[in-house]
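INFO batch 0412 | record 1 of 1 | parsing
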Amino acid sequence: MSTAPNHTASRQGLGIDIGSASVKVCQIEDGNVAWSEVRPHDGDLPGTLRRILEDKGVTPGIPALVTGQEGRRQFNVSDRIAPAAVERAVQKLGEQADAVVSVGGEDLVVYTLDKNLRILNTFAGNKCASGTGEFFGQQLKRMGLKVDAVFEPEVANSQVCKLSSRCSVFMKSDCTHKLNKGEADKHDIVLSLSNVMSRKVVDFLSRARIKKGRVILAGGATKNPHLVKFLRDELPHVEFIVPEQAPWFEAWGMADLALTEGTPFPLLMTSWATRR
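INFO prediction complete | emitting C-alpha cells
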C-alpha cells in the first residue's frame, strides 16, 4: 500500500515565482496560506528553491506551478506566464481594482483590469535599471546599508535630493557626488531613491491612464513605506492597496492555480531542475 501524502484530499498547491533577484514560494492548504518565503537567489535558482522546500518540509507529489522570468524553464514543473499569476491572485484577493502595479527587482509592470478582474492591457517598464528595486538595493549596499534601512526613523526625517533618473549610470554618479560633497547623507539618498521609484510608478500609471480609482501594489518594493507614501501623496485620487501577500503576490496566484492546473512536484529531489 502506498504511503505517499494525499495532497488532493487536503487541497494543497505550491506556487513558485522566479524573480530577477529572489525566489518567491507560497503553499496553500485548504484555501489558506500555509507558508510563504522570499529568498535572494544570487544566481543559484535550483539551489535556492531546493533549500526553501527542504526547510519547509515540502513532500513530493504536491501540485505545483512556476512563473517568473526565463529562469522558470530550468525547473521540471509546469509553468505559466506572469499575467496568469497576477490575474489569479487578484481574483483570489477579491478587491475591486482598476490596475495592478508589480514592482520587481528589475521590472515594473502595470496591468489594467476590467470589472471582472481580468487583465485588459499590460504596460511594461523599459530596460533602464534606474528606479528599480535591484538598483535601489545595490545603492544601499554601496553605502554599507541593508534594505531594511528604509525603516530607520532618520529616513523619514530626511530630505529628497534631485537625482538624474534618465539613466542608472547618471543616477549612481549623482548619489556618489552628493555624498562626497556633503550635500546629502545616506538617509537622504535612501529617501531620494524611494522618490525616484515612486515617480517611475506614477509615470507608468499615467501611460495606463490611471489617475483615479483603486490600484493594487505588488512586489518586494511594496515593503518600502516611503515608496508607498510618495505614491499616495502624488496621486491623492488613487487608493493604493498593499495586501499582505504583496511581496509574493505572483507565487500566491500560482499556488491557487496549482490546485486545478498544477502537476505533481517531482518525487526525486535531483529532478527538481532538469530542464536547462
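INFO post-check: The first helix runs from residue 45 to 56.
INFO record closed
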